Amino acid sequence: MEAKQYDAIVVGAGFAGLYMLHKLRERGLSVRVIEAADGVGGVWYWSRYPGAKCDSDSIFYNFTFSEELYKKWSWKDRYASQPEILEYLNFVTDELDLRPDIQFKTRVMEASFNDETKSWEVKTDTDEKFEAKYFISGVGCLSTTNIPPFKGVDTFRGEKYHTGRWPHSKVDFTGKRVVVIGNGSSGVQTMQEIAKEAKELTLLMRTPHYVAEARNHPLSKEQQEDAFNNYPKIRDAFFTTPGGIHLSTTGKSAIEFSAEKQKETLDHVWKTGGLALGAVYPDVGVNKETNFVVSQFVRNKIDEIIKDEHTAKQLHPDYYITTKRLIIGTNFYEMFNEEHVHLVPLKDNPIECVVENGVKLRNETIECDVIVFATGYEAMTGSLLKLNIQGRNGQTIQEKWGEGREVKTYLGLTMENFPNFFMITGPQSPSVLTNMPSAIEQHVDWIDQCIGYIESNGLQTIEAQRQAEITWGKQCDDIANSTLFPHTNSWYTGANIDGTQRGFVIYVGGLDNYRKICDEVAANQYDGFEFE
Ligand code: N01
């Protein structure tokens, strides 16, 4: 079959793919976005579990590149729910008339660089072939689900679901005994909804996590208008803050304050809710003393909230707060005061297998009608590796990255041996440590400018130099090693999946600094790259 010709192929129609399509089309390029789902949304298309919300304040969780577009959409609540985010992304798709250039229900199976034609050849599960000068991944950091290989999953006679692949129709938990495995953001968010219907709800918990209060509420007309009036400030946060979002902060270390003042501040943050708990003292991720102050504050809250002392202690997290993603929940700890909600720590009582009527642990079997796997994702690299990408001389990313976590990139955007291939929010970029739309806009703008440079200079390819990759990898590692992050086993390091090689693959120096580095590289005629 003849390959269909485009200037660029973009994988995924989430925030990243949609904006990339818009930018390149404005530049006059022909673009095809290839998307496995039958609609736009990316992770927000799939993660339809009850309670699914974004933990960035909604007024920041959108595109800001166009003031006009920003002011056409009002969020209903402080935190946007999954259906509303999906509605927003459909709204953007229609406003920008993106749909005609997106091919749905099509999965990229393989992409390889042809050194003779200097183009990418892309094959899909629809048996189509595409050929393009540029190949761009917008697959996201958290889109390949992880179901641990428990024995016996197929023998279970009840219903089973993964939070990241939820059915489109409502799942009714009324009168049912439900087991949730996993208490990351997804598990915490969905439990609070399932508890309202289920007869019994049991959390099987491997690691206790820190859960801050969300304090979600509807946005009043006035608050919505404030967001519009504050557009320049919101836009500014995308450029000038480490996380691409304004969060309440003292701007100082906890150790500069008395114990009374620390408590007052943290109580205030707890009451106002949200991710600010992880930002109120900016050194929380690097200074063990500050970290202890904030961690202990949450442990004390857990003791205050949960009536049963033993359950409270079992829920005490003991890693450095923020080195795993801070979770935002609503009355999560309060839930354990309800009689039908049970906690089963797996530390000394691990899951042995799934059986036909429940989950068998070392010491007991928890009988249930429904199992919810809230077990997360093959984060950061899983979805990229699944694309089966081959660069020059047929080299795969798997080969380049060892078992998959010895990540080598330049700026988290590009790789040696993979000319004209770009990763939006790839590993070794700030990505998941930021408000994602902020990181996505920065990456897409940079890629778009870079492609503009190639086109206007009559060039064929751009490719990262090996030395630039080595230097970038060292810079990422040095910054990470000066923080508390690498001390904790988390999906940031790949440690959430048994048997996976570990590696911390995020640039932790902040989106603001990262942006400056990327801009300097571009201003210096793409320092660290080679052109053909
Ligand atoms: O996944 P997770 P998630 N046996 O990896 C447990 C984003 N997100 O889907 O901690 C038993 O955080 C695992 O245990 P442990 C957000 O960035 C955002 O909840 O590894 N348990 C953990 O408890 C988030 O951080 C929103 O010991 C096993 C849980 O499963 C990211 O997605 C909403 C296990 C997995 O937690 C991932 O969140 C939802 C095993 N073999 C998600 N394997 C927003 O609000 C894993 N677990 C934007």
TrEMBL record:
Q: Which InterPro entries match?
A: FAD-binding_Monooxygenases, FAD/NAD-bd_sf, Flavin_mOase, Flavin_mOase-like
Is the keyword Oxidoreductase assigned to this protein? Answer: yes
Q: Which coenzymes or cofactors are required?
A: FAD
Q: Keywords assigned by UniProt? A: FAD, Flavoprotein, Monooxygenase, NADP, Oxidoreductase
Q: Please give one Gene Ontology molecular function term for this protein.
A: flavin adenine dinucleotide binding
Question: Sorted alphabetically, which Gene3D superfamilies does this protein's record hold?
Answer: FAD/NAD(P)-binding domain (3.50.50.60)
Give any Pfam family that matches: FMO-like
Is Flavoprotein found in the keyword set? Answer: yes
For this chain, the family text in UniProt reads: Belongs to the FAD-binding monooxygenase family.
Name the chain's protein. Flavin-binding monooxygenase-like
Task: Tell me which species this is from.
Answer: Sporosarcina newyorkensis
List the lineage, top down. Answer: Bacteria, Bacillati, Bacillota, Bacilli, Bacillales
